[in-house]
Design goal:
The protein has about 280 residues and is mainly α. The protein has one domain. It has a two-stranded antiparallel sheet. The chain is globular.
């Protein structure tokens, strides 16, 4: 199967599938938080505050992490070049600062964001697929895909540049297109399942913030497993050849387990978010 980037041209403007799905991801995550706040009888406008802080902090953090990882300072001015973990840290910092500004308990904020974050991540990976970025290693499976205009194209030369090793002695044309794992779709499916599981357990009886541990474990496990079939441009670690993303994933899982154990039982943590303001009469 051959897949091309999804692009909409509106006069001089160009709307890519990545930009479209990033917008959808933030909007859907915000909508999910709004529904949760409405169910709790709390101020729904807090969801919009979180989305705005997440967009700004996430984009800045993802770009800075990419530049620090690749030492490619010119990427600061390019459209591409984002790393999810940097975006996660940047968005988290911005959202918590915004919550502190509004005097909202940080534990309630992370509790509210956890399931919608999984939803937003899943939808964001659809954007990666539509722009033909962040794909996997060569595959002969029926659903393997070729990306002739990918970032970069799935040619032999480009895949070798991403660390893929072809059989020794096999002569291959560097411009030959190769079918690869659509790892973007794998991640979408896995994180949609994680969102479904967490969304159904919003009324858990554990302490406020417990849902954050669920998200960290799911996100870490998902990324750790997908890394085995992803064409990656980060450096290998000395420990068993694991990637930097896998090492970070292990740290996320460990942190998630700590959170789950620490907040396993209710502790009376108050929810300090203000009640919704009633509309003016008339």
């Amino acid at each position: 199967m051959t897949v091309y980037p999804f692009v909409i041209h509106l006069g001089p403007l160009e709307l890519t599938g990545y930009g479209l799905m990033m917008m959808v991801a933030f909007l859907m995550a915000g909508w999910a938080m709004q529904l949760d706040l409405r169910r709790r009888g709390l101020d729904e406008e807090y969801a919009a505050d979180i989305v705005i802080a997440g967009v700004v902090g996430g984009l800045v953090g993802a770009k800075i992490w990419y530049v620090l990882l690749t030492h490619d300072w010119n990427a600061l001015l390019r459209r591409g070049g984002f790393v999810w973990y940097g975006g996660f840290l940047g968005a988290t910092a911005a959202i918590l600062i915004n919550g502190w500004r509004r005097r909202v308990s940080w534990r309630f904020t992370v509790e509210l964001c956890s399931a919608p974050l999984a939803l937003g991540y899943a939808l964001g990976r659809v954007g990666c697929f539509l722009v033909n970025d962040d794909y996997g290693i060569p595959s002969s499976l029926p659903w393997a895909m070729k990306f002739p205009h990918g970032l970069p194209a799935t040619t032999v030369a480009n895949l070798e540049g991403l660390g893929v090793r072809f059989p020794a002695g096999q002569v291959m044309d560097g411009a030959q297109l190769i079918a690869v794992h659509p790892t973007q779709i794998y991640e979408t499916i896995l994180m949609m399942l994680a969102f479904w599981w967490m969304w159904r357990r919003r009324d858990h009886a554990h302490a406020v913030g417990w849902m954050l541990g669920c998200y960290l474990v799911f996100a870490g496990l998902e990324r750790f497993l997908v890394e085995f079939v992803r064409a990656k441009d980060d450096h290998k670690l000395w420990l068993g050849g694991f990637t930097l993303a896998q090492a970070t994933s292990v740290a996320l899982v460990i942190l998630g387990v700590v959170v789950l154990r620490a907040w396993w039982k209710p502790d009376g943590q108050p929810v300090s978010l203000p009640k919704p303001v009633p509309p003016p009469p008339g």
